[in-house]
């Protein structure tokens, strides 16, 4: 007999039904769910056009939006635009609606309307006879006024289209266009395979004279440093100005040779250019996710060619934004080296008095009103109120992204959204006090809204008009949980810090059933998971999993002390915080303690590997994407060696000499140190082109697990970098994660 006689069969079956949670297991059904959820697009840009007054005195403007969406069939992220018309009076939206349907955008790398809205500039990439070419187009009314083949003109290398350096900006006069491109490199040939080979002496002479200036010999294999992860082949940016009338491109001179310029714009009256300059001597380090690179604000005068430094010599700056009255520039500033992302200072430079002031300083601990400091990595393209008095930004405040208004004369910070029930808010743009924002939460994909910035003092009266509704996912519930470490886990240097986590659960739970739990600590480690829409967590939750997103101490959004508490303590403080969050959640009683998995990427992968090493019986499945597994071996190969030093508890200098004791400490803080205790089956996902956490980190761990005969599988994604975000890699990664967890949690 198969079943014990003491429990009747019908009772046993019904008990199994009660104990078993319902998790979707069929690959085809999971893929269908993923496909369905992929249909929610994300907003990536919004522009507000000039205000037009109609014949009848009504005012309206056009809101242009760009969205991205995964197209699984075409295996690409598609970008499309949609426009809306917004009728308004001085302070409220009267009527709004879409004007037309969505249009897919192909080949556009950058585009920008002129300030008056009369013209548009587009940087387009097109493949002609198998070769990639870049074109700069100027559009006016219903026609393309100009099209310059930048590749053939060969004044510079490829134009930068990234967030770090890239920009395309009209002059105030609308006669010139400014952008950033790679510096032109000399044409080079081998000493042996040039056109001279096999020619008669006099023919050779002719060719040599013709080509003397253009071609250098023996430099084909020259190494050009780049700016690391996601900025490969970006080495020496130059500022370029197109004179639209004359179709003439000038590559600006006068910028110090040890500085790489980017994020540029026109100074008041078009007298020159303001830009962020990053020091690149003695060598370049990775910039992505690293706001702590020495940089300053500069001004280059177009008439004299003189370059002036406008901000501190020993800080890191980003996102300079000129006020509408063209008098002041706000920008964010933080320390050099140290944690890769920190609490920012909001600074302001007065163009006429040349005075700099700190509008909002670094916040060490949350203030009484709850403000925890500024953590935005980038300000929106426009961020000033119409009267040039207030600055707006979206910013993590603990695990929620709020819209904050900063009064530049008093430094007072007010939240426009802290009273709302919803999740997180993103400021896309603001023009003449009309804000374009997007709101989402773990159970609600992003929507699109507009609203006028209320008068100072009336911020609580903020009202929004939705331009694009979304579809809330009623089957997902979520909550925020706060944790205070017990005394023995308090940080003696930074005592009394707390942290939090976001818990997602399927709303419909069968009575008495226990949920499987997936624990997800974020990467960085100085980053934060806010209460916004994530495709993967939503799908996992819809499948029947509960998901715990942990913002351990060291995360952004909780004050600078919280960030500073982690370097030197990685592998212990962060690991214990995650485990504390998991243990606390398990006390709720809704979860099956035998069905817990851990998933993480990068530093989140570091934590996943640590957790399975330090709590060997606890986690039944582990998925690690590009994990840091050994800091001592990573330091020589990553684009951010400073990260390895700082997180291991040391100061970084570019001329640092590694001592055995430093390497020992790095090893001791690494997951590889605990690998011999691992029992949990591990799925590794590695990007072949990862410059941040090179794939050898994962391979080192893979070999160790293989030798220990711990079940391990490695997925290798060619053409992918640290983010593993190409559509096929991301979707394959999701499916394999889900199936690995289902298999090893015996669901
Ligand atoms: C600064 C940085 O990139 N650190 C990595 C080790 C990391 O964890 N990256 C995070 C931001 C990621 O999620 O990729």
UniProtKB/TrEMBL annotation:
GO CC, alphabetical: cytoplasm
Keywords: Acetylation, Cytoplasm, Hydrolase
Top-level EC class as recorded in UniProt: hydrolase
Subunit architecture: Homotetramer.
GO molecular function: omega peptidase activity; serine-type endopeptidase activity
Domain spans labelled Peptidase S9 prolyl oligopeptidase catalytic: 537-745
Catalytic activity, as annotated: Cleavage of an N-acetyl or N-formyl amino acid from the N-terminus of a polypeptide
Natural source organism: Sinocyclocheilus rhinocerous
Family of this protein: Belongs to the peptidase S9C family.
Family annotation (SUPFAM superfamilies): alpha/beta-Hydrolases, Peptidase/esterase 'gauge' domain
InterPro entries on file: 6-blade_b-propeller_TolB-like, AARE_N, AB_hydrolase_fold, Pept_S9_AS, Peptidase_S9_cat
Keyword rRNA-binding: no
UniProt protein name: Acylamino-acid-releasing enzyme
EC numbers on record: 3.4.19.1
Task performed by this protein: This enzyme catalyzes the hydrolysis of the N-terminal peptide bond of an N-acetylated peptide to generate an N-acetylated amino acid and a peptide with a free N-terminus. It preferentially cleaves off Ac-Ala, Ac-Met and Ac-Ser. Also, involved in the degradation of oxidized and glycated proteins.
Domain Acylamino-acid-releasing enzyme N-terminal residues, every copy: 23-473
Highest taxon of source: Eukaryota
Subcellular location: Cytoplasm
Matching PANTHER family: ACYLAMINO-ACID-RELEASING ENZYME, SERINE PEPTIDASE S9 FAMILY MEMBER
Pfam families in the record: APEH_N (PF19283), Peptidase_S9 (PF00326)
Swiss-Prot/TrEMBL GO biological process terms: proteolysis
């Amino acid at each position: 007999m198969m079943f014990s006689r003491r429990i009747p069969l019908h009772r046993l079956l019904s008990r199994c039904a009660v104990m078993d949670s319902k998790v979707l297991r069929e690959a085809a059904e999971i893929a269908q769910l993923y496909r369905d959820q992929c249909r929610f697009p994300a907003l990536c840009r919004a522009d507000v056009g000039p205000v037009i007054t109609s014949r009848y005195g009504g005012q309206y403007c056009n809101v242009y939006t760009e969205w991205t969406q995964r197209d699984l069939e075409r295996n690409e992220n598609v970008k499309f635009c949609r426009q809306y018309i917004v009728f308004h009076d001085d302070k409220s939206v009267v009527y709004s609606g879409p004007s037309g349907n969505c249009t897919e955008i192909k080949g556009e790398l950058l585009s920008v309307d002129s300030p008056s809205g009369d013209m548009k500039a587009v940087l387009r990439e097109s493949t002609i006879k198998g070769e990639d070419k870049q074109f700069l187009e100027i559009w006016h009314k219903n026609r393309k006024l100009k099209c310059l083949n930048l590749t053939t003109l060969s004044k510079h290398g490829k134009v930068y289209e990234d967030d770090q350096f890239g920009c395309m900006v009209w002059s105030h006069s609308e006669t010139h266009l400014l952008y950033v491109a790679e510096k032109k490199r000399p044409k080079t040939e081998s000493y042996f395979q040039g056109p001279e080979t096999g020619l008669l002496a006099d023919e050779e002479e002719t060719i040599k004279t013709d080509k003397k200036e253009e071609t250098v010999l023996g430099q084909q294999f020259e190494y050009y440093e780049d700016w690391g992860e996601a900025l490969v082949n970006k080495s020496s940016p130059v500022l370029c100005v197109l004179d639209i009338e004359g179709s003439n491109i000038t590559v600006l001179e006068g910028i110090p040779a040890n500085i790489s310029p980017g994020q540029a714009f026109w100074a008041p009256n078009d007298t020159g250019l303001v830009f962020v300059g990053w020091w690149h001597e003695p060598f370049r380090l990775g910039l992505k996710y690293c706001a702590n690179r020495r940089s300053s604000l500069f001004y280059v005068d177009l008439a004299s060619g003189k370059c002036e430094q406008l901000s501190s010599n020993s800080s890191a700056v980003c996102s300079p934004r000129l006020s509408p009255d063209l008098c002041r520039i706000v920008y964010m500033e933080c320390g050099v080296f140290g944690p890769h992302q920190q609490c920012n200072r909001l600074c302001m430079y007065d163009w006429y008095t040349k005075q700099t002031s700190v509008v909002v300083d670094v916040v060490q601990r949350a203030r009484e009103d709850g403000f925890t400091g500024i953590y935005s990595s980038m300000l929106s393209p426009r961020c000033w109120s119409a009267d040039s008095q207030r600055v707006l930004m979206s910013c993590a405040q603990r695990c929620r992204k709020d819209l904050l208004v900063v009064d530049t004369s008093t430094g007072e910070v007010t939240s426009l959204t802290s009273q709302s029930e919803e999740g997180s808010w993103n400021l896309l743009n603001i023009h003449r006090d009309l804000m374009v924002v997007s709101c989402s939460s773990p159970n609600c994909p992003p929507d699109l809204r507009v609203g006028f910035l209320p008068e100072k003092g009336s911020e609580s009266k903020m009202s929004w008009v939705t331009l694009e509704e979304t579809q809330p996912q009623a089957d997902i519930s979520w909550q925020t949980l706060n944790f205070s470490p017990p005394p023995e886990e308090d940080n003696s240097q930074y005592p009394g810090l707390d942290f939090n986590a976001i818990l997602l659960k399927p709303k419909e739970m069968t009575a008495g059933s226990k949920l499987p739990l997936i624990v997800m600590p974020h990467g960085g480690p100085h980053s934060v998971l806010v209460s916004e829409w994530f495709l993967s967590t939503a799908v996992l939750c819809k499948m029947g999993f509960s998901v715990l997103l942990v913002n351990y101490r060291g995360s952004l959004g909780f004050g600078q002390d919280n960030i500073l508490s982690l370097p030197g303590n990685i592998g212990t403080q962060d690991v214990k915080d995650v485990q504390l969050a998991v243990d606390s959640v398990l006390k709720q009683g809704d979860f099956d303690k035998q069905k817990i998995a851990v998933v993480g990427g990068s530093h989140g992968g570091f934590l996943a590997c640590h957790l399975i090493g330090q709590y060997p019986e606890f986690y039944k499945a582990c998925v690690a994407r590009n994990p840091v597994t050994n800091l001592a071996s990573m330091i020589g190969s990553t684009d951010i060696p400073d990260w390895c030093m700082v997180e291991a508890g040391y100061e970084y200098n570019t001329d640092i000499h590694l001592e055995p004791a430093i390497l020992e400490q790095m090893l001791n803080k690494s997951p590889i140190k605990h690998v011999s205790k691992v029992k949990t089956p591990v799925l590794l996902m590695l990007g072949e082109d990862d410059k941040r956490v090179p794939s050898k980190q994962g391979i080192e761990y893979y070999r160790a697990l293989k030798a220990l005969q711990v079940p391990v599988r490695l997925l290798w994604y060619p053409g992918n970098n640290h983010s593993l975000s190409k559509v096929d890699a991301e979707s394959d990664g999701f499916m394999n994660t889900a199936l690995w967890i289902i298999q090893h949690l015996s669901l």
